[in-house]
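Researcher: Please predict.
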Amino acid sequence: MGDPTEEEIVAQRLLVARLGRLGLVRRYTRWGNHNCHCYSEPPELHGPYTHWTRTEANKTVSRIWSDEQLSRYQSWLDNAR
């Protein structure tokens, strides 16, 4: 791996700008199977999952981040605050 290309630097800057306006949320969820332990009493929910929510073209877009993605971008998130 050499130095990043100009295209990669521009892409990183755009991503940093988008991350600055993000909404990261850690959620626990239920799945669709009603026989799963997440529907028991008391419920044992699945997760936590990191959801990244943002607005693109006036529409809300949400993605689930893996732990690898979160660790990769955590320093950028900390810096944006």
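Model: The mean pLDDT is 83.
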